[in-house]
Amino acid sequence: MRSFFSLINALDKNYKTLLFFWNNEKRKSEEEVSLKERLWLWKNGFNTFQKSRYGLTKENIHLYLDTWRYKKNAEAYNGIFNKVIDNKAMIPFLLPKNLTCENYIIFEKGKYAGANFDIDGSVENFLMEQVKQKEYIYKPVYSSLGSGVILLTEENIKRVLGFARLKKKTAIISEKLYNLPYSDQIFSGCTNTIRINVIRDPKTNQLYLLDANQKFGTNKSAPVDNFGKGALLFNIDIENGTLLEGYQKNEEGYTKTISHHPDTNLPITGIQIPGWKDAVNNLLQELNKLVWLRYSGIDAVLTRDGFKIIELNSIPGLEGVQSRIPLFKDPRTRAFLNSVGIQPRKKIENSPE
User: Fold this and answer.
1) Residue 352: its pLDDT value, please?
2) How would you class 227 by CB atoms within 10 Å of its CB: exposed for 0-12, middle for 13-18, buried for 19 or more?
3) What is the rounded end-to-end Cα distance, in angstroms, of the chain?
4) Which domains does the chain have, with CATH numbers?
5) Do 62 and 347 form a contact (C-beta atoms < 8 A)?
6) Residue 279 near residue 209 (C-beta atoms within 8 A)
7) Which of 128, 163, 230, 303 would staple 221 via disulfide (CB 3.0–4.6 Å)?
8) Would you state the pLDDT for residue 121?
9) Which whole-number Å values give the CA distances from 350 to 30, 101, 114, 262, 343, in the listed order?
10) Which residue numbers in the chain have pLDDT < 70?
11) H or E segment at 40?
12) pLDDT at residue 6, rounded to an integer
C-alpha cells in the first residue's frame, strides 16, 4: 500500500513539474532554435528560450540549474513551510511586525475571517472610512502575476466584497505600500515592487542575498507591475543598490533591453536606491530569526522605515539571476542546492571558472 501511494505521489510531482515546464516553454526565444538544439535543451531539462537568455553551450550547461530539476525538487526548499510561504494571508503571522504593513484584513471563501488589528463595526463601513484617507489593495490569496488585484475606492468596495462573497474568494485587503520617492518619480501608477531572492547558507546557517531586481509599472500594465503585462524589470547591483540594465517585452513577446521609462522618458539605469545597504542588512537580520525560511523570492517595498514585505514565493523565477550568475558557479548556492538533492551534472571546483 505504501508503494502505491509513493507511486501516486511521484506521478503527481512529475505532472506538476511537466505543467510548470510547459508553461515556461510558451515563452518566446530571442533567437531561432533548431529542432536538434531544442531536443538537446529538453533532454537537459531547460526551456527553449533559456538557450539565448543564459548563453547555454555544451561547455557551460553544467553550471546552470535547469527548469525541470528546479521545480521537481521544490518541496525540499522549505519543507512543510512551502505552502505556508505561498499563502499571502499568512504574512502578518509569519513575519516580524516591523516587516509588514499595519492593517491586514483576511477573507476566507468570501467571508470576513479576521485581521491583525481590531475593527469596530462592519468591515465595509471600516473600509469606506479608511479609503477616504489611505489607499487599500484587494488581492486574492491564491493568485499570481497581478491577477485579481484591485485598488479599492468608495465606489467599488461593496461591489468587490460582494463579488468575493458570491465567488467564495479567499483574499486579503491591506494598505497600499509606497516605495521611497525615487520610485514614484519614475512612475507613480504602480507599487513598483522590489524582488529580493534569499538563500540560507547550510554551512553558516545565515541567509544571504542572491539576487534583486525592481519592477516599474507602465501605462500598459497599471495598476499592477507585472512584467508579462508590459511592466519593466531592472536588475539591481546587490552590493550598492544601483539599478542596472532593464528589460521589457515588445509587442511580439520578445524581451528587449531598455534604460529609460517608455512613458515618462526618465532614466532608470544608473539610479542608486537610497539606503539600500542598511535596508538589506536589516531585512536579513530580521529574516535570519525565521529558522524555517531557507529559500524565497521576497516581494517588498522600500519605505522610510525599511523594507515592508508584500508576499513570499517558495519558487521564484530563475531567469533573472541565471542570466548573470549561473547558480552552480557560486559555492554557497551550490551547497544549498546539494542539500536539497540537486547536484551539478559534473564536478565543479570552487576556484573561479
Assistant:
1) 47
2) buried
3) 48
4) 102-175 (3.30.1490.20), 180-322 (3.30.470)
5) no
6) no
7) 230
8) 83
9) 32, 41, 50, 42, 14
10) 1-12, 143-146, 350-353
11) helix 35-43
12) 59
